[in-house]
Amino acid sequence: MADPVLHPETNHHHHHHTQPLKEIAIDYTPEACSHCPNSNSIALTFDHRGGARWRTTTRFLYGTFSALIQCPKGNTSGLNFNIYLSSLEGDKSQDEIDFEFLGKDKTIVQTNFYTRGTGNREQIHDLGFDCSDGFHEYMIKWGRDSIEWVIDGKVVRREEKKEGDENGEIGFPEKPMFLYASIWDASYIDNGNWTGKYDASDAPYVCLYKDIHVPIATVCDS
After folding, report:
1. pLDDT for position 170
2. Residue ranges in the chain whose pLDDT is less than 50
3. pLDDT digits (tens, 9 = 90+) for 180-202
4. Cβ atoms of residues 177 and 60 within 8 Å
5. Interior CA angle at 68 toward 120 and 106, to 5°?
6. Residue 169: what pLDDT?
7. H/E segment holding residue 64
């Protein structure tokens, strides 16, 4: 193959070559996260121990990220379960691109993105199904100039980079990012209005991820 640097059009497509996720890091409560590399599947559990968060072991700069997700069954009020990209979880100046499920309503998903710590770009999308009812594919296509959020092959949101927006456009995610996923109790946010109040009646709550794919050519040394 020709040097992709000399042929930006092939280089662009290169961002979208993906490979199965082989290894993960678990940020907290490892006993609530089980990973089977052979079947490329991960289960996150929320119960009396709290939840857990997994991430890729490397950052990526642009590319296509996807997973089949079956969200937890039962009354998930209060919980947030998700898949997202972030330059560093907990950093106040992070870049981030999100799919977030709000436990009070499993027929919607929220998308958002942050640049240098500023978000406030939330949108709510009707799924047309219950996210706990079987597996559905969630994909983030992150390029230099556009972001697409794709569910079961359908683009539900597209954002394009704006050049020199005089309204103080705060830019576009450009920091290398990890792929993350977690399940946590978000009851305390906005007095419970965002995800609802936690109801433990159906614990343990298990979020299943499988067929997780990450870009093959855009790995950065973290």
Report:
1. 66
2. 1-10
3. 999 999 999 999 999 999 999 99
4. yes
5. 55
6. 60
7. strand 63-70
pLDDT number for residue 13: 62
The catalytically annotated residue of 9, 31, 89, 96 is 96
Nearest one of 118, 96, 124, 132 to 194, comparing CA atoms: 124
Q: Is 100 noted as a catalytic residue in this protein?
A: yes
Write down the pLDDT at residue 15.
74
Identify the CA nearest to 102 among candidates 122, 119, 86: 122
3-class state of residue 167 by DSSP: coil
User: What is this structure's pTM?
Assistant: 0.91
Q: Which residues 6+ apart lie within 8 Å of 94 measured at CB?
A: 86, 87, 88, 114, 116, 117, 175
CA distance 185 to 105: 14
**Residue 10 has what pLDDT?**
46
Q: How many residues does the chain have?
A: 222
For 12, the 3-state DSSP assignment is helix
Strands annotated E in 4-78: 18-20, 24-28, 33-36, 41-46, 52-56, 59-60, 63-70
Task: Give the Cα-Cα-Cα angle 36, 222, 159 (nearest 5 degrees).
Answer: 85
Catalytic residue among 100, 148, 163, 169: 100
89 catalytically annotated = no
The Cα 144–Cα 71 span in angstroms is 30
Beta bridge partners of 136: 69
Please say whether the dihedral angle defined by the alpha carbons of residues 61, 33, 128 and 122, taken in this order, is positive or negative: negative
* Cβ-based burial of 199 (10 A; exposed 0-12, middle 13-18, buried ≥19): middle
